[in-house]
Amino acid sequence: MIADGVEDEEKWLSAGIAGLQQNAFYMHRALDSNNLRDALKYSAQMLSELRTSRLSPHKYYELYMRAFDELRKLEMFFKEETRRGCSIIDLYELVQHAGNILPRLYLLCTVGSVYIKSKEAPAKDVLKDLVEMCRGIQHPVRGLFLRSYLAQVSRDKLPDIGSEYEGDADTVVDAVEFVLQNFTEMNKLWVRMQHQGPAREKEKREKERSELRDLVGKNLHVLSQIEGIDLDMYKDTVLPRVLEQVVNCKDELAQYYLMDCIIQVFPDEYHLQTLDVLLGAFPQLQPTVDIKTVLSRLMERLSNYAASSADVLPEFLQVEAFSKLNNAIGKVIEAQPDMPILGVITLYSSLLTFTLHVHPDRLDYADQVLGACVRKLSGKGKLEDNKATKQIVALLSAPLEKYNDIVTALKLSNYPRVMEYLDSETNKVMATVIIQSIMKNKTRISTADRVEALFELIKGLIKDLDGTFDDEVDEDDFKEEQNSVARLIQMFYNDDTEEMFKIICTVRKHILAGGPKRLPFTVPPLVFSSLKLVRQLQGQEENPFGEEESTTPKKIFQLLNQTLETLSNIPAPELALQLYLQCAEAANDCDLEPVAYEFFTQAYILYEEEISDSRAQVTAIHLIIGTLQRMHVFGVENRDTLTHKATGYSAKLLKKPDQCRAVYACSHLFWVDDQDNMKDGERVLLCLKRALRIANAAQQMSNAARGSTGSVTLFVEILNKYLYFFEKGNPQVTVAAIQSLIELITTEMQSDSSTPDPAADALFASTLRYIEFQKQKGGAVGEKYEPIKV
Fold this sequence. Notes:
Elements: H1 2-32, H2 36-48, H3 57-83, H4 88-94, H5 101-118, H6 123-133, H7 140-154, H8 172-192, H9 202-225, H10 231-249, H11 252-265, H12 268-273, H13 275-281, H14 291-308, H15 313-318, H16 321-335, H17 341-358, H18 363-377, H19 386-403, H20 406-410, H21 415-419, H22 424-441, H23 448-457, H24 459-462, H25 475-489, H26 497-512, H27 519-537, H28 553-568, H29 573-589, H30 593-609, H31 614-629, H32 636-651, H33 656-666, H34 681-706, H35 713-728, H36 735-750, H37 758-777, H38 779-785
Helix pairs in contact: 1-2, 1-3, 2-5, 3-5, 4-5, 5-6, 5-7, 6-8, 7-8, 7-9, 8-9, 8-10, 9-11, 10-11, 11-14, 13-16, 14-17, 16-17, 17-18, 17-19, 19-22, 22-25, 23-26, 25-27, 26-27, 26-28, 27-28, 27-29, 28-29, 29-30, 29-31, 31-32, 31-33, 32-33, 33-34, 33-35, 34-35, 35-36, 35-37, 37-38
């Protein structure tokens, strides 16, 4: 059915074009022979093709454009005729004898154009005559194209200031009156289109009307190009007349399009000076008009105008633009109670952008906008409309982008209240945007109050908003979110130790409420921030004034102990153990022996009770040995206790090679270079001998199980330890012991039962080269190594 209609329309268009071309051919022949009567006759017949009602606006436009091209040639002929002496007035009357009104008016407009150009009559009189005559066509499509033609041929002949047609009698008022009258009539025709034809084709007609809108809007563009329209004329005549037509037409499509046209074609400074009038029209529009988009575009234009130059900002203050826009938005929302929440948020988002551009120093204005948004959202619960939540993210991102400083945004009291209306997923997105802004701008958050306010904003990342952890959360996304929180904690800093301690307490309060899954990510940065503060306070263990309130390393360590207890309860024993050892090392640097001992005790308890995986045990024992080796704060008794425990743990590891390596690592606990009271050669030797026994046992086990003694790597590693302590001057490590170990390794490597191991061979060869190198050094070192035979 639709296909048949399209085919029929194509046939009618083809017939129309054929008729038009045929008459155009005869018209050209008449023009070539200067036969005026035949030219008028055939041109009228040619234009009669435009009388059709069968074509859609799109097809009618094709026909019109062909006729328009022919009329340009006819106009050139009329100009030639007047030069040859033909009276333009006679010509003007002659064309009015055409039989049908539509061809008559097209010819009249064409001759009228030449008439104005000849200046034989005032332009305003001819224009007035033409615009009145065109009322003879009341068919919407034919009337619109006729008046569009009139606008086209007259646009360069308006009596504008500086125009050659200005004259004594003509003023810019006449030009404005002509364009406004043409605009008014065209708009009436355009609106009337919706009532033509059956109701079932309403959607099709609306589409056709949408295609014709530029014909109407062109008049407003012409108005904006008239040089003589100053601000006063625009304010007193042009804008009120245009708005009157817009409001009175009561048509959704026309109102939306024409309001948008007004905003786009007229200058920004005119909009600013006539805000009252322009904004007053919005509540009078039809409830179905998409006012939010039009108002948003107006605010966007004004924002760009404000951003273009600092010189225009006083104008905004003078006309109180913010309060007028704010009031207008309120009225529009009241006038449209069914406006979706997306529309409301979009309006306030545009107003906030406008405020940030025009009044960046007025935080109260920005807060006012957010407050108005909160009032409109109240009672709605969490937003479920995706577009609305995205718009809120845009609204909340605007202050961050403008100020590049979260500290400024934190001063906006309504900022967190708007965030409460976001669902948990979007809340996380917004929290991530805030953290990214802080990281990008390297913003330091330096007071506990600001940290508190910031955590209120990003609570979507630091705790489960609905009280339960969602098992469906993507693990990688979760890790990325928590890592961003960890990076954020590093941005909290204040040189004042008291304030920094308050910041740490605030952070601790929030992250401990985050649930067990988050603690492994958020506790470490808190611990290291606290240890950083401890380093600042080193040497200030007791406050000279004896104030209980003052921050001391001891107080911070107490806080850390409580914090790490929660981590070990998750459980995350490996991480907790590492952090306990870090704290012990810091306590060591502050000469707090009881505190350091307590941290070590907690680390040992974790090792014994929580860490059962053999690999984790190996890592943990080496961390314990490494940390303990650097401790200088312990007295003999405490150190012996901890050292004894460490060596005991080492000997109890599951795999023999792990046992061996841990035991020979323990030898370093009894020999610390820069501390004479911690050089016990006998116990070093005991550790090394014990490591040898374990290495030997490992070989025997390998031989029993696999029939080969396995690699000699452990023996070579122990040989390196012997050489280390020999070089450091341990009297218990003798040349004889080293020599016998070298011989043992050589024998094992030559044995048939040993397993070939290129890595062990290379390590042994490298060790022997080292001994040779030391020998060649000469002096005391050379003498020392000389007895060793390799």
